[in-house]
Amino acid sequence: MTDAEGTVVEIPHKPRRILTISAGTDEMMLGLVEPERMAAVNDSLADEKHTNVPWVREKIPTVITRSPSVEQVAALSPDLIIVTPWLSRENADAMRELGVPVVVCRAAATMEDIHANIRLFAAAVDEKERGERLIAKMEEKLAEIEEKMKDVPEEKEAQEHRAYLHHAQLRRRRLYLRRAFAAIRRRSTQRLPQATAWGRR
0.85 exceeded by the pTM? Predict the structure, then answer.
């Protein structure tokens, strides 16, 4: 098969230990294969407070970070690796040197990109029919949403959009504050031994 970068990838058998490097690609892959075929899932998807797949930790206990090292990847013994374009070429090549098929997908900016990625994943895991069913289900849900939106007055739609943007801004501020407090705690911890030593003098 040929991936999104035009690289021809040989996949010798139906993959049974699939590894993707992001929560979005994990979620998409889980629409195509049984959880038992996943070697691990991204920690963002495994976060019980924010996941769209609440059962994922029960079915797939192994969790990886968003940017796992090549050594961490190798330890999972995957037989297929799906990576996104933001992964560095150096890391992707290092994963290929493990002797594992590596497939680069598209950056999912549009529905066309998402459909292309689903078909790419489905081809890689030998589940093309499931891929087409998943796309059809997505299109059906989108059509339902569009139909419901016809009954929403434009002014209310605009208000909801502004509320969404405001909520997103608040989330960004909370994330900044959490990171700032974490940095302060780290600095306080680093100074503590020195202060204690001075106190003993």
Answer: no
